[in-house]
Specification:
The chain is an alpha/beta fold. About 70% of the residues lie in helices and about 5% in strands. The chain has three domains: about 1-120, no CATH class; about 130-210 and about 355-404, no CATH class; about 220-355, 3-Layer(aba) Sandwich (Rossmann fold). The longest helix has about 40 residues, at about 110-145. About 25% of the residues are buried.
Length: about 400
């Protein structure tokens, strides 16, 4: 009976894995990889539940509870940083549960998966930080070569240099520092661990937010502006945002014959010859978008103003008090833009335009720093508690342990 069930699950999974790409090719949004991952997850969960039933236990309700908590929070409000933490808590609980299940069942499939995971974690522990350093230095060289030597483009290089200094000092600190100083030096790794956890949660929800799939019933699409080349020309980064909006515009028009209005949002900077919104409109007109489907917001200076002023245009242009809107920006900026939409009381989620891979590490670091600044009071309190606790341990070590 057990082998029969496993065979049935395997056949059902293979049939679904074969059908999904063909099914998605007929859709306007062909994101078949997401559905392949979802299908694998569903089949794997069914298999795990079957193993639990065989053991006459129901521990799978524990990770299921944490998954439901995450899903409830996420679909209630996608634009919340805590969603990243909730998902990671679910992952930790889920991995712990699967580890216990491996020991209880010695199931071959779970043992193989646990072995692969264990090897990955071991390699990450042994060489992960050094591999990260190599990657950061390589990425810094590529970014500086292609994007210029601005401070914003130096973030991966500065992080790599900082981690290198930390590793070198950590290696020699045990021989040159007394015990109490070593305890005090623990402030730095503790703060690094805290901000790594915050960054990981941010990266998690930013990645999940990329899977946002708005329906083809939108009334407006807000395109967030950025700087212009020579103060007048749409750069590739901004062009990708507009192209993403046009792609959705054409898809909705094809599906419903009711295309949304495009709101080109961006004011005129001090070094620009015209407002970004005007340049963006010209770009969209060249792409064949009718002028009557384009609205221009030309007063904003930052993303929050993009959202606020676009909301005013929507409320003036909308025929009813209820409207449906989304926004487009580059994928690395997507989640923070969602936070600004929330701050502006604009009920809109985003869709992200692709960005060159080499640009993403530096861009995500920049976004993370901006997120930390947005919540600086919270982080200062946590950092203050960490510093105070370690200073207290240092004083204890110096006055009590050191005298023994």
């Amino acid at each position: 009976m057990g082998n029969y069930f496993i065979l049935v699950i395997g056949v059902i999974y293979l049939i679904g894995a074969f059908i999904i790409p063909k099914w998605r090719r007929k859709k306007i949004k062909q994101n078949w990889k997401f559905f392949e991952l979802l299908w694998f997850s569903i089949c794997f969960i069914c298999y795990v539940i079957y193993l639990e039933v065989q053991l006459h236990s129901f521990y799978f309700f524990i990770p299921s509870f944490f998954l439901l908590v995450f899903l409830f929070s996420y679909f209630k409000e996608k634009r919340r940083l805590i969603n990243g933490l909730l998902f990671n808590v679910f992952l930790v609980v889920g991995m712990t549960y699967l580890g216990v299940l491996v020991v209880r069942t010695t199931n071959p499939l779970l043992v193989v998966m646990a072995g692969i995971t264990g090897v990955f974690l071991l390699l990450s522990a042994l060489i992960g930080l050094y591999a990260l350093l190599v990657f950061l230095y390589w990425n810094a060289i590529v970014v500086l070569r292609k994007e210029g030597h601005s401070l914003a483009n130096l973030l991966t290089l500065l992080l790599a240099i900082g981690l290198t200094i930390f590793l070198i000092f950590s290696y020699f600190s045990t021989t040159i520092l007394p015990s109490w100083a070593m305890t005090l030096f623990g402030i730095l790794p503790m703060l690094m661990f805290y901000f790594f956890a915050v960054f990981y949660n941010f990266l998690t929800i930013s990645t999940i937010y990329q899977f946002n799939q708005p329906r083809y019933n939108q009334d407006f699409i807000i395109i967030l502006g950025s700087g212009l080349i020579d103060g007048k020309t749409v750069p590739p980064l901004l062009g990708n945002r507009i192209d993403k909006a046009i792609q959705f515009y054409q898809a909705q028009k094809s599906a419903t014959q009711m295309p949304p209005k495009l709101i080109m949002s961006g004011g005129k900077g001090d070094d620009e010859h015209l407002a970004e919104g005007a340049a963006m409109k010209a770009y969209a007109l060249e792409k064949g978008i009718p002028e009557q489907d384009i609205l221009v917001e030309a007063n904003s200076k930052n993303t929050l103003e993009n959202m606020k002023f676009s909301k005013e245009i929507i409320e003036k242009s909308s025929e009813s008090s209820t409207y449906r809107a989304i926004f487009t920006t580059n994928n690395f900026h997507l989640f923070r833009a969602g936070l600004f939409a929330k701050m502006a009381h604009l009920n809109a989620n985003g869709i992200g335009a692709k960005t060159a891979f080499y640009f993403l590490p530096n861009a995500f670091l920049r976004e993370f720093i901006a997120i930390v600044v947005m919540r600086k009071r919270r982080h200062l309190i946590v950092c203050g508690i960490i510093v105070a606790a370690i200073i207290a341990l240092t004083l204890f070590d110096y006055f009590f342990v050191g005298l023994v």
